[in-house]
């Protein structure tokens, strides 16, 4: 091969090397521009995503299901003779959960029942005595008028010397005796009416006192049956048959799984835009990502978890390390969603709060007007006691002929 051969040693034209060298910078610039454009678009996309999505939401996985735990305890001392509900079982409000031996309470109830009946009959007797006293007053008035008439007839005869003064004096003494008898009868009538005046038999103070004693005995007897104050599910049963229980001793717990909430523990920095009323989405670990609950923020805790712990942190000491604190945010759940997908207390959840609208209040503006929880089980018990007392009173009232 000669020196003037236009081909290179590897068989390629010599002129192509300069052409490729000329084209490589342009390709590199285009590639660099393409990569730069990709990064710019990615950054812009990420910025838009943060601006319209991530910046309008705060999220935490430090969130757990909360709910009421209604402790069931005895109100009177006694020995357990029956247990009518166990762990995991559903109970209705007013259902009997535990029965205590009621022998002593039944005896006291019977005594109170007899005392109430006796009080009613005693007032009836007082009413009859008052009527008898009124009749005695009427008889005394008649006797006084007769004595006064006799004296009036004999006085002209004395003036005409047709009647002896001794007889007239005797008649005057009779008038005085009749007047004294009338005064005594009126005093007795007043005393008899003092015990019953202004009231009917059922409202007499003696009957009311006996009625109150019966009501207390009846309620005490009923408390040997321990009722469920709310509808829910039994947990933590510790009572056993034969146990001797005391008032206030916890026997089991009833958990209403219909009224639950989420306690989401957000970091301090995440609370900046959280407001009452903001919507939230919740996913429970027990259902995975297939079930989503919808709730709303109903309140923000009054302090961090460390403040209310058993041993609060002493940050004023020299041994201090700053730790990011968390504040519980309560989120109410939709009862219909809970009915479809029940939750349990303490389950882990992921909570996302939409903070787009952060103009709402951080603290409630007014105190709560409605009760947080209530039951009418014990009110029904008192009403039944009144019905039983009314039956006893009616049974001992005089029968209409």
TrEMBL record:
Membrane topology of this protein: Single-pass membrane protein
Subcellular location: Cell inner membrane
Coiled coil feature spans: 168-195
Keyword list, A-Z: Cell inner membrane, Cell membrane, Coiled coil, Membrane, Transmembrane, Transmembrane helix, Transport
Record domain p-hydroxybenzoic acid efflux pump subunit AaeA-like beta-barrel: where: 261-351
Residues that span the membrane, as ranges: 31-53
InterPro entries: AaeA-lik-b-barrel (IPR058634), EmrA/FarA_HH (IPR058633), MFP (IPR050739)
Domain Multidrug export protein EmrA/FarA alpha-helical hairpin: 103-223
Broad class of where this protein is predominantly found: membrane
Biased composition range(s): Polar residues: 1-15
Chain residue ranges for the region called Disordered: 1-22
GO-annotated biological processes: bile acid and bile salt transport; response to antibiotic; xenobiotic detoxification by transmembrane export across the plasma membrane
One Gene Ontology term, aspect cellular component: plasma membrane
Family: Belongs to the membrane fusion protein (MFP) (TC 8.A.1) family.
Protein name: Membrane fusion protein (Multidrug efflux system)
Organism of origin: Fulvimonas soli
């Amino acid at each position: 091969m000669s020196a003037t051969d236009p081909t290179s040693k590897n068989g390629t034209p010599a002129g192509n090397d300069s052409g490729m060298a000329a084209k490589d910078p342009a390709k590199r610039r285009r590639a660099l521009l393409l990569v730069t454009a990709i990064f710019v678009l990615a950054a812009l996309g990420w910025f838009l995503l943060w601006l319209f999505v991530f910046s309008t939401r705060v999220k935490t996985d430090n969130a757990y299901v909360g709910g009421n735990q209604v402790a069931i305890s005895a109100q009177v001392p006694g020995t357990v003779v029956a247990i009518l509900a166990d762990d995991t079982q559903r109970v209705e409000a007013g259902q009997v959960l535990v029965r205590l031996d009621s022998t002593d309470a039944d005896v006291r109830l019977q005594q109170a029942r007899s005392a109430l009946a006796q009080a009613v009959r005693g007032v009836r007797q007082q009413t009859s005595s008052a009527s008898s006293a009124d009749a005695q007053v009427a008889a005394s008035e008649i006797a006084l008028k007769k004595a006064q008439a006799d004296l009036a007839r004999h006085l002209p005869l004395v003036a005409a010397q047709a009647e002896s003064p001794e007889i007239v004096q005797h008649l005057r003494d009779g008038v005085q005796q009749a007047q004294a008898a009338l005064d005594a009868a009126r005093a007795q009538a007043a005393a008899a009416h003092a015990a019953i005046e202004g009231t009917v038999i059922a409202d007499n103070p003696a009957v009311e006192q006996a009625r109150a004693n019966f009501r207390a005995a009846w309620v005490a007897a009923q408390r040997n049956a321990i009722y469920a104050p709310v509808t829910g599910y039994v947990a933590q049963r510790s009572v056993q048959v034969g146990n001797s229980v005391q008032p206030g001793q916890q026997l089991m717990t009833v958990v209403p799984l219909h009224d639950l909430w989420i306690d989401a523990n957000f970091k301090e920095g995440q609370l900046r835009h959280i407001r009452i009323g903001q919507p939230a989405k919740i996913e429970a670990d027990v259902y995975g990502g297939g079930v989503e609950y919808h709730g709303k923020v109903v309140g923000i805790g009054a302090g961090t978890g460390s403040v209310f712990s058993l041993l609060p942190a002493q940050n004023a000491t020299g041994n201090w390390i700053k730790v990011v604190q968390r504040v519980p945010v309560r989120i109410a759940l939709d009862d219909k969603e809970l009915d479809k997908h029940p939750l349990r207390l303490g389950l882990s959840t992921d909570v996302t709060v939409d903070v787009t609208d952060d103009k709402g209040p951080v603290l409630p503006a007014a105190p709560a007007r409605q009760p947080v929880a209530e039951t009418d089980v014990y009110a029904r018990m008192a009403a039944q006691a009144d019905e039983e007392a009314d039956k006893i009173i009616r049974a001992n009232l005089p029968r209409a002929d």
